[in-house]
Amino acid sequence: MEKVAFIINPFSAKKNYQPFLNELKAKVKDPLYYISESIPGTDEFIQAHFNDVDVFVAIGGDGTISTVARNIIHTEKVLAIFPAGSGNGFSNENRFSKNLDELLEKLKVRNSRKIDTFTVNGLLSINVSGTGFDGKVVKEFEKTTRGFKNYIKVSLKTFFSYKPIKLKFLNEEYKQYNGKYLMVNIANTRQFGNHAYIAPQASKSDGLVDMVLVKKFPLTYSALFAFRMFTKKLKEDDYITYLPVSEAEFKVNTKNWHLDGEFNKIKSPVHIKVQPSSLCILV
């Protein structure tokens, strides 16, 4: 497997990366791999092997994938994925499965395509980022052992106590959308992860992101919201607005964000900018 490097996040997949590594070593002779202990360590490994590697394979969740992507964006280097996170939203959207044989076959054929990414105050996002309710949920979720059940528990607990955030656009053309929202999401792809489709019409290759503005809704609406989200049927209604943008600037009265599911503190004003066809991925 020449010119391919495997980057393993040992903290993903409940730290159970050894079976993957054993299988990889059984099927690939002397694979080039790195078990990452930190983001700077991953950055250093990629830079050290940048000139002699064509495809970097991220073994982890969306945060791991984003770290690898940040090092190869705007180049011809190719990103591939073996999903090992709790949600795997970006992997699902790009049809990467937990089947090593399938991945190795793709690596042999070596087809790739360019997709959009975007930045939040200069920080890279490849999937879905947001603030408000889900920014707070991710902050609390990171204190748990993760997993889908814990995500639902934290979400329910947060929902009852969470006060909507104030959103104020600095772009004249979007000022009609100023107001209070439960959450504001920026979607490059359709789903958060775990097949929760927050933006069913989003495309990763149209030069736009969908801003999803969700007003606080009554508990009686929550079951319908969840049903629609998990069946790709969320749509504009009294509580949800979809705003396709290539660039936007706004203020929000919170610093709690998640970027691709990883908690970040981001100060207002917030500048969103799409980077069209900026990342090469294996298909």
Brief digest:
With 283 residues, this protein is an alpha+beta fold. Helices cover 29% and strands 32% of the residues.
- The whole-number mean of residue pLDDT values reads 91
Query: If helices are DSSP runs of H or I spanning 4 or more residues, what is the number of helices?
Result: 8
Approximately what portion of the residues adopt beta-strand conformation?
25-35%
Helix content: 25-40%
Unreliable stretches (pLDDT < 50, length at least 5) are: none
Distance between the termini: 17 Å
Order of helices and strands: EHEHEHEHHEEEHHEEEEHEEEEE
- What structural class do helix, strand and pairing data support? alpha+beta
Radius of gyration: 19 Å
Largest sheet: 10 strands, mixed
General shape: globular
Oligomer class: single chain
How are the secondary structure elements laid out?
Elements: E1 4-8, H1 18-27, E2 32-35, H2 39-49, E3 55-60, H3 62-72, E4 78-83, H4 89-93, H5 100-109, E5 112-120, E6 123-125, E7 128-132, H6 133-141, H7 148-161, E8 165-169, E9 179-181, E10 183-187, E11 209-214, H8 219-230, E12 240-245, E13 247-252, E14 256-259, E15 262-265, E16 270-282
Parallel strand pairs: 1-2, 1-3, 3-4, 4-16
Antiparallel strand pairs: 5-6, 5-16, 7-10, 7-14, 8-9, 8-13, 10-11, 11-12, 13-16, 14-15
Helix pairs in contact: 2-3, 6-7
Molecular structure report:
The model has no long low-confidence stretch (mean pLDDT 91). The strands form two sheets. Strands 1, 2, 3, 4, 5, 6, 8, 9, 13 and 16 form a ten-stranded mixed β-sheet that branches. A six-stranded antiparallel β-sheet has the order 12-11-10-7-14-15. It has 283 residues and is of the alpha+beta class. The chain has helices at 18-27, 39-49, 62-72, 89-93, 100-109, 133-141, 148-161, 219-230, and strands spanning 4-8, 32-35, 55-60, 78-83, 112-120, 123-125, 128-132, 165-169, 179-181, 183-187, 209-214, 240-245, 247-252, 256-259, 262-265, 270-282.
